[in-house]
Every structure is written in structure tokens, then in C-alpha cells.
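Changelog note: in this version the structure field was regenerated for every chain. One regenerated record is shown below for reference.
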Amino acid sequence: MANTSTILMSDHRVSAIPSVECGESLFDLRKVPALALDHRQADDTGAYAHLRIGLVDRLLTAQALLPPGLRLLIVEGYRPVALQEHYFARCAARLRDANPAWTEEFVYVQASRSLAPLSVAPHVCGAAVDITLLNADTGEMDMGTPVNAGPEESDGACYTHAPGISPRIRANRDLLGRVMSTAGFVNYPTEWWHWSHGDKYWALVTGAHAAHYGPVEWSPS
């Protein structure tokens, strides 16, 4: 099992993992009332609300492990290829403009802290979910940063094990981590909210020989 404390999506060890597509279909999470779906990343086609069907049971398993009154809140699942490319290019452009002395290679690496390069991106495989915790009484729980907060804007607090966050926030993140890990997901250490299963990063972390899921085309019904 790899130590992912410093392994970014841009690392050659991630891209070197082969993909052996299993052919599993995308499933609409809106058909699973037990799972709470947030709309902040909603798109007109509903792509964001889909995941490979094998991940759906894992999410239900994770949720069942939570204390009474708490639920998972799903922010984004599948992301079309064109949207992933747009997000990565926009992030890289912002970093390039703010740091004109950086090389293109370094811009690429730094951008990969927040957005995965297309060749390894778990969201385009339907294999990743951005997720947080929901309290039935008080709403979305405090995890220290908003979902999708970048390292620059959060001063690094978006890192799952960032130093300096409060004990309460640490406990919330640890709880999310326990239930998601038990259900077979792995975390991307620069983003406390990002969890995946069956993609290249998951394969590297778990020692699997290949990813189960490759990029999948989105075709709304």
C-alpha cells in the first residue's frame, strides 16, 4: 500500500497504473432517496448526480456506519471529460498568472493538488465522489473549509490532515474518513472531501494491479 502523504495526481506512479475497464454503468443517485444530494455543482444534464453503480452500495454502507442523525451529503460524482479539461486548464491559468516565474511543469504539478489531469481523473471515470456530512438538526457540518476550496484560498486547510484545524473539525473529518475508508474508498490527501474507488489513484493506494474504471462517456437519457 502506497504512502499518499505526498503523492499527487500528477505523479508518474498514478499514470503508470493500467485501466482494465469493467463495463459497469453509471447510476443516477437521484433514484436513491436514502442518499442526500446537494445541488451546488449541478449541471443541466444531471451528470454530477451519477456514479458507477458499484460505488452506490459502498456509499450506502458508509452512511449506515454514521451515528444516528448524520448522513452523507453528496456534492458531485461524475464529471464529463470536457468539464474536467476546462476546470484543470482554468486552475493552471490562475496559478500561472499569479506565479509567472513558475515553469509549466511546476504549474502542472501545483494544479494537480486541486484538479486531476485528465489522464488520471477519477471523476471522469464515475469513480470519485465529493462528499461531506449532514446533520439532520443543524445542516451541513463544519469541516474547516468549503468543498472545493483550493490550497491557496484555504491556506492549506483543505488538506485532509492539515495542521492547525480545531479538534471539532478534526473529529468531523476523522468520522468521514472512517466510514468512507471502511466502505472501500480512498481519499486524495489534498482534499478532505474527495473519495474514490476503482480508479488509478485508488489502485496505487491499495496496491491493486489495475484500475477497474476508465473514462466513460456521458449520455443523458
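Spot check on this record: Helices lie at 12-15, 53-64, 81-98, 104-111, 151-154, 167-182, 200-206. The chain has a mean pLDDT of 92.
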